[in-house]
Model the fold of this input.
Amino acid sequence: MVEIIPLQEIDEKYLIERVEAGDIFIYPTDTVYGLGCNALNSNSVLDLKAIKKRDSNKPLSVIAPSKKWIYDNFEISKKSYVQTLPGPFTFIFNVKKNSVSREVNPGKNTLGVRIPHHPFTRLIQRAKIPFITTSVNLSGKRPIREIKNIPKSILKKVDFVIDGGFLHNQPSTIIDLTQEMPKIVKR
Done:
């Protein structure tokens, strides 16, 4: 049985050690439950894609460790968008230098980045590393708002789950900021 840890009982040091070690786990965000791991660990990223049954060539998004990290690693022409973070948005930026495993966005020079407005995000940001964020569901299925609805096929393959209760929101809005005009990719 997978370990389920209530959000209010998570030990910060323990969490950071497990993120750094490459564990894959489920966690709450300001939108829906996420499936994540250390975005610098190629093996963990590939394992996460296999759990989600996601095409290994399809890119993932990351939770940025800070706004400074975003400015340091991406071409930002519209700073006002970054200033809206944290929030329920994923922004796609052109990469200016490699800052994640090549398995995160294989063959792409763009990357989706977000900073959820949720207490859990602040905990993982203390690890100071980018962290994979993708909704907990099999590709093509509905996102999960409550851990009791997580498919058993996913639960049995993750290292642990952070229970943040029922989440009331929709998945993040994805906005492509790689061109002159911002473009909403998904609401």
In short: The first strand starts at residue 3 and ends at 6. The chain has one domain: 3-186. The mean pLDDT is 92. The chain has six helices and eleven strands.
